[in-house]
């Protein structure tokens, strides 16, 4: 069984490769020049193109939702984007927080951070910055964020509990997050769960839906709400790389479901203030 660090290195290597490609290359790479379904990284992405702040060069098609649509970002807010990639969600958040706010993107893949910074410089945004770091140990001070967003990232992290503790630390009292992620209902076939490419593609690292929501509650967040939910269908031409035809049919007949959910939760106002006083 792979360790947490080994799994993280798989993700880092895969997303380093993706950072060096453009969106069309990512989408066509599953079968070269032939016609096939979008590669697993892109199967779950939503359409951003009509949203204010959208930047095509920053869209690698790696998300599984539109968390900024649900994040209740206000002008002047400080927003942190976890796993910021090439910067797409950060730039959309910037359109909502305005020039009086600030957006910080955090990503642990150097090539992604470099790409996001280049995109930001090209756009002339002075209140958007990208920092290299692990979202289990965010390179930001405690209590600085009004809003945290993330798009299809937490399920890539083996230590999801550690990330949620960091989110709690970094949010201001009363601050909130809106996170799009992949969750499961039922158990995936072992071949899918153990495949490195599927792990980096946001499927094999997913946990059960109820476990995901319970983990948020266990970390003292309140007002937990599933803002959007959709089922994800993995095409046969992708499944065939991991399962036999018989296994594919068995998988389809099972009650196993792969879902994209967007979850909202808030750091308590009163409890957080008490904690900070006690820790002072």
How would you describe the overall organization of this protein?
By secondary structure, the protein is an alpha/beta fold. The chain has one domain: Vaccinia Virus protein VP39 (Rossmann fold, 3-Layer(aba) Sandwich), CATH 3.40.50. Helix content is 38%, strand content 22%. The chain is built from twelve helices and eight strands. Strands 1, 2, 3, 4, 5, 6, 7 and 8 form an eight-stranded mixed beta sheet that branches. α6 links the parallel β4 and β5. The protein is globular, with a radius of gyration of 18 Å. About 6% of the residues have low confidence.
Number of helices: 12
Q: What is the number of beta strands?
A: 8
Kindly, what is the distance between the CA atoms of the first and last residues, rounded to a whole number of angstroms?
A: 42 Å
Low-confidence stretches: 26-42
User: Tell me, what's the shape?
Assistant: globular
The portion of residues assigned to helices is 25-40%
Query: Can you tell me the CATH topology?
Result: Rossmann fold
How many domains, as an integer? 1
| Structural class assignment | alpha/beta
The CATH architecture can be given as 3-Layer(aba) Sandwich
Computed over alpha carbons, the radius of gyration is: 18 Å
């Amino acid at each position: 069984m792979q360790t947490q660090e080994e799994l993280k290195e798989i993700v880092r290597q895969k997303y380093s490769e993706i950072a060096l490609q453009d969106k069309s290359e990512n989408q066509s790479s599953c079968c070269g020049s032939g016609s096939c379904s979008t590669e697993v990284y892109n199967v779950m992405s939503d359409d951003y193109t009509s949203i204010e702040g959208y930047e095509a060069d920053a869209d690698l098609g790696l998300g599984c939702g539109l968390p900024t649509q649900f994040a209740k970002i206000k002008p002047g807010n400080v927003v942190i984007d976890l796993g910021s990639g090439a910067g797409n969600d950060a730039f959309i958040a910037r359109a909502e927080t305005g020039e009086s706010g600030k957006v910080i993107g955090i990503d642990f893949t150097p090539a992604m951070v470099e790409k996001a910074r280049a995109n930001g410089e090209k756009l002339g945004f002075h209140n958007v910055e990208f920092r290299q770091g692990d979202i289990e140990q965010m390179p930001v001070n405690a209590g600085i964020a009004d809003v945290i967003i993330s798009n299809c990232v937490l399920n890539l992290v083996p230590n999801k509990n550690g990330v949620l503790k960091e989110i709690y630390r970094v949010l201001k009292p009363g601050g909130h997050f809106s996170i799009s992620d992949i969750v499961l209902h039922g158990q995936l076939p072992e071949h899918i769960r153990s495949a490195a490419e599927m792990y980096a593609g946001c499927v094999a690292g997913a946990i059960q839906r109820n476990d995901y929501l319970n983990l948020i509650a266990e970390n003292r967040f309140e007002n937990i709400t599933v803002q959007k939910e959709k089922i994800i269908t993995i095409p046969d031409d992708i499944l065939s790389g991991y399962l036999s035809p018989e296994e594919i049919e068995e998988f389809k007949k099972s009650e196993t479901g792969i879902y994209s959910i967007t979850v909202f939760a808030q750091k308590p106002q009163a409890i957080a203030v008490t904690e900070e006083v006690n820790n002072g």
